[in-house]
Amino acid sequence: MMRTLFHRPAAWCVLCLLVLGSLLTACQKNDTALDTTDYSARDESLIKDYIKDNNLTGFQRDTLGLYIAVTQPGNGVKITKGQQVSALYTGMTLDNRVFDSTGSRNNQPFTFGIGLNQVIPGWDLGFAKLTKGAKATLLIPSGLGYGPYAVGSIPPNSVLRFDVEVTDVK
């Protein structure tokens, strides 16, 4: 008698688990559809109002809507793609609620590769305009931040503020 794969008890168990898993996945209801609204005009207005309401100065807007104000120039050449950047930072929403800070982790710098999609796009763009030793404030529209995703205490489609300091570049 010829034995096939399905004459083995272990094979039946695996097949049943695969079918059951597929059925459960197909039956799950997804109530949280992503909001695909373009918030660029709203974000632009929020950022301009935030700058005005907080009497902030020195901001330059790039073509993608990132606002950056260098509060202390660094030294050396601008950071380029692929370099390792170490930075101190405080991240907050526009209601000044801090959601993350290296200060809460003994001021240990955060290190990342610039332009390698290791951080949000607003960081890649903003840090590429800085040099070692620079301090700056980045106002990042939601599309260059976490977009439609809620991350920790950050609501979806949030404009973000980061106060940053470049401590090292390699």
TrEMBL record:
State the signal peptide span.
1-26
The protein's UniProt keywords, in alphabetical order, are: Isomerase, Rotamase, Signal
- Per UniProt, residues of the PPIase FKBP-type domain are 82-170
The answer to keyword rRNA processing applying to this record is no
Enzyme class, top EC level, equals: isomerase
| Transmembrane feature ranges | none
Reactions performed catalytically: [protein]-peptidylproline (omega=180) = [protein]-peptidylproline (omega=0)
Has keyword Signal? yes
**Family recorded in the similarity comment:** Belongs to the FKBP-type PPIase family.
Q: What is this protein called?
A: Peptidyl-prolyl cis-trans isomerase
Q: Which species is this UniProt entry from?
A: Hymenobacter rigui
